[in-house]
């Protein structure tokens, strides 16, 4: 029993903690810019990295910082999670089936 007097759910319980994969996905989606990036694929099959940068840049002065965040943080995390594929040149991004499914749920 937990300190607050409530019972902790067992692993067989329908209220048990989420899976590690789900926890990881929730942590990824906790970032507004990553949710915005996934939303960019609502109507496009492929999106240029440059366009994604403009999607998350607060203003023209933020474009360089947005580019750095994309290349060094957001795109690697989303690609490692199997949500996006980045082409060999690093210029074009395509959502995976899992990324598309997740993006459609974010819009719902």
Automatic annotation (TrEMBL):
<dbReference type="InterPro" id="IPR055768">
    <property type="entry name" value="DUF7344"/>
</dbReference>
<dbReference type="Pfam" id="PF24035">
    <property type="entry name" value="DUF7344"/>
</dbReference>
<dbReference type="InterPro" id="IPR036388">
    <property type="entry name" value="WH-like_DNA-bd_sf"/>
</dbReference>
<feature type="region of interest" description="Disordered">
    <location>
        <begin position="1"/>
        <end position="25"/>
    </location>
</feature>
<protein>
    <recommendedName>
        <fullName>DUF7344 domain-containing protein</fullName>
    </recommendedName>
</protein>
<feature type="domain" description="DUF7344">
    <location>
        <begin position="26"/>
        <end position="94"/>
    </location>
</feature>
